[in-house]
Q: What sequence folds into this?
């Protein structure tokens, strides 16, 4: 019997040893699984970072290639422009020089005539060359030849020749002839399909180049056109949209760096940030346009200077033939300006290129003179007058812009907390909690804290050591042994007590380990809860900051409205030459 | 048939300039009358008058007007339904029915006297000088 007892005891010890090893094994495996999980997570984020870096590298490389290509092509296009149209430059220089030589009378009739004729041969198809011949003939008092030359120029470019003649005659003090050409010029125009050179007429009005009679004539015609074009709503909408695009370019950059906690916890942050950036446009618009409203253009002393400037613009401006190359040139420049980013370049050109388009309606010319004066080659004074004339569209676009971003502000800003908290193979998933910042902060904190407690407590309770189930086996074995001891041999009772004691000791150490783990997890989740509450408080403070910043930025909207109204008035007074007496400062005769 | 219908539509379509015309002081004043308690008869009379004014002056009648409420707490805003002569005041937690709900953030900005809400969902805020944003 003692043999049997010792065998049972040995077996029980063996089983016990196996159970202990198994427990250790399971513990190790769960640790390893946790480590593997963590490593997989790290690998995934590294891989994502690598993908991002690689994509950025590809994009940067593409941009570098685009940039290099655009730079090379700019040189090519410039060479082509010089090659194909470089000789136009000579004609343009001669035209200006010839007008000035009329003033001082230093060049002989023969030279003027000879130069004109030579350039006429060198630049076929160019409208300005026969104009030079006409000027030579005019100087030599040869009306028949002058007439033929003007006719040729008119055939090549009716509008430019009329305008040139109107300006030149005005410069020479021949008002009647100048007005006749001007009337001729205006009558031939279709306000829905004007050439780019029409901007020169706006320039002439702003500079008062045609004198009071000319200005009245032009103003009447422009008013008629405006009335006629604006009866078509689509044209009105097109101008308002053009101004809306201008306002959109003044949107302030994202301020997400100033609201780090709100970015983390609020799903509505994107809308809030967009509204703040859009409200920031008011400040930028004020900066840009108040400078313009405050400017007082200084009138040049002599009318000839103004007319010469406009003539310069007319003769040096791109000719229609040059446009395709000029457009290509502008495209490559845009790519360089955007550092190889073709998409951004295309986007900026979509609005800018309009200024290079061949045919525009009168309303668009006004808008473009205001928004892209360099492209149309008009002066600051004309730009200001154009802004004034566009004030209605500007005001409408601005009002609609403000309405749109205000309407897009989310009515309810929420904080959302959910997520995974891991420690030594223990994974706690906080179920989603959301609360509106419209509620008081104390209430939100209470709600979030009780949400944490509600879900954390059962989770921690589950980690507690289960004495009940673990005690069943040892108690059963001990009782069986005790019964055997009573029935068979009292020594077995001693063995039963030993087995029971040993097993009990083992279970107790296990329970201690479980309790320690439970305490660790409790601490970890307590910290996570405090962290959440801190984030909530921080985000709440940032909502207040955002609200103040938004009110400040949005509060500047009435200033922009007032500024646009100022510009509308300022534009009328901004052309000091507009109603200038014809003889004032005009030299007499050629 | 189609072309005739198109012409008809064009004939009856209100002129866009007429729609953009500034709202006169009478309408602004009428909109403010909602701040006082109105009985059913006065509401019907007010809505009828505003409707007639819109029809005559601007050729386009909105579904209703939405504006800030000056009755005091708990109300912050209200809507006047011009067709059903309903005047409803809302507290912050109340749900405003569509399409009026979208006007709520606009009036909250404090920049507008009231917002015209159209059946299409279009919102046209009116500024204190009567000018309208289209």
A:
């Amino acid at each position: 019997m003692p043999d049997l007892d010792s065998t049972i005891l040995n077996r029980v010890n063996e089983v016990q040893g196996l159970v202990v090893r198994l427990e250790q094994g399971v513990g190790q495996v769960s640790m390893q699984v946790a480590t593997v999980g963590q490593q997989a997570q790290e690998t995934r984020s590294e891989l994502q970072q690598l993908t991002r870096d690689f994509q950025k590298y590809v994009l940067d490389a593409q941009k570098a290639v685009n940039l290099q290509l655009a730079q090379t092509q700019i040189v090519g296009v410039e060479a082509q422009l010089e090659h194909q149209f470089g000789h136009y430059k000579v004609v343009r220089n001669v035209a200006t020089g010839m007008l000035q030589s009329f003033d001082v009378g230093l060049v002989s009739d023969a030279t003027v005539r000879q130069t004109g004729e030579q350039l006429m041969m060198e630049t076929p198809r160019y409208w300005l060359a026969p104009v030079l011949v006409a000027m030579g003939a005019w100087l030599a008092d040869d009306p028949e030849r002058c007439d033929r030359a003007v006719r040729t120029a008119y055939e090549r470019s009716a509008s430019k020749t009329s305008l040139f003649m109107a300006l030149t005659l005005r410069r020479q003090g021949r008002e009647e002839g100048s007005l006749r050409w001007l009337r001729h010029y205006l009558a031939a125009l279709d306000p829905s399909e004007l050439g780019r050179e029409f901007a020169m007429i706006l320039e002439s009005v702003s500079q008062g180049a045609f004198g009071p009679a000319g200005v009245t004539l032009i103003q009447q015609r422009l008013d008629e056109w405006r009335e006629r074009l604006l009866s078509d709503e689509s044209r009105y909408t097109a101008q308002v949209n053009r101004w809306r695009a201008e306002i959109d370019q003044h949107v302030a950059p994202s301020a997400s760096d100033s609201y780090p906690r709100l970015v983390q916890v609020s799903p509505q942050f994107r809308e809030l940030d967009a509204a703040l950036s859009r409200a920031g446009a008011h400040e930028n618009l004020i900066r840009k346009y108040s400078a313009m409203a405050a400017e007082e253009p200084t009138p040049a002393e002599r009318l000839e200077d103004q007319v010469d400037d406009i003539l310069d613009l007319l003769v040096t401006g791109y000719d229609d033939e040059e446009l395709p190359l000029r457009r290509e040139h502008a495209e490559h420049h845009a790519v360089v300006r955007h550092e190889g980013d073709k998409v951004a370049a295309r986007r900026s050109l979509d609005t800018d290129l309009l200024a290079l388009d061949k045919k525009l309606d009168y309303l668009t010319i006004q808008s473009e003179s205001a928004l892209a004066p360099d492209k149309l080659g008009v002066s600051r004074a004309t730009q200001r007058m154009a802004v004034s004339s566009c004030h209605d569209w500007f005001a409408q676009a601005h009002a609609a812009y403000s309405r749109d971003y205000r309407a897009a502000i989310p009515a309810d800003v929420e904080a959302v907390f959910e997520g995974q908290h891991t420690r030594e193979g223990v994974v706690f998933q906080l179920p989603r909690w959301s609360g509106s910042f419209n509620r008081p902060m104390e209430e939100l904190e209470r709600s979030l804290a009780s949400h944490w407690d509600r879900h954390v407590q059962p989770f921690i309770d589950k980690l507690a050591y289960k004495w009940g189930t673990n005690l069943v086996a040892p108690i059963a074995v001990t009782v069986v042994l005790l019964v055997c001891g009573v029935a068979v041999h009292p020594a077995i009772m001693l063995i039963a007590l030993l087995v029971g004691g040993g097993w009990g000791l083992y279970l107790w150490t296990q329970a201690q380990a479980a309790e320690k783990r439970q305490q660790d997890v409790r601490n970890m989740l307590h910290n996570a809860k405090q962290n959440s509450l801190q984030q909530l408080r921080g985000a709440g403070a940032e909502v207040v900051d955002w609200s103040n910043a938004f009110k400040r930025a949005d509060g500047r909207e009435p200033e922009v409205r007032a500024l646009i109204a100022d510009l509308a008035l300022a534009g009328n007074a901004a052309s000091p030459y507009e109603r200038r007496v014809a003889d004032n400062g005009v030299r007499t005769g050629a | 048939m189609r072309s005739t219908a198109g012409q008809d539509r064009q004939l009856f379509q209100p002129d866009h300039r007429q729609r953009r015309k500034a709202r006169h002081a009478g309408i602004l004043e009428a909109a403010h009358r909602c701040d006082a308690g109105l009985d059913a008869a006065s509401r019907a009379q007010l809505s009828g008058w505003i409707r007639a004014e819109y029809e005559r002056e601007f050729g386009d009648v909105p579904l209703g007007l939405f504006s800030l409420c000056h009755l005091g707490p708990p109300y912050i805003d209200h809507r006047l339904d011009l067709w059903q002569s309903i005047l409803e005041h809302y507290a912050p937690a109340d749900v405003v029915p569509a399409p009026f709900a979208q006007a709520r953030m606009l009036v909250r900005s404090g920049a507008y006297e009231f917002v015209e809400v159209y059946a299409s969902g279009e919102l046209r805020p009116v500024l204190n000088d009567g000018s309208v944003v289209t």
About this structure: The two ends of chain B are 32 Å apart (CA to CA). Chain B touches chain A at residues 16-17, 20, 92, 101-106, 109, 111, 123, 125, 127, 131, 133-134 (CB under 8 Å). Residues 2-126 of chain B form one domain.
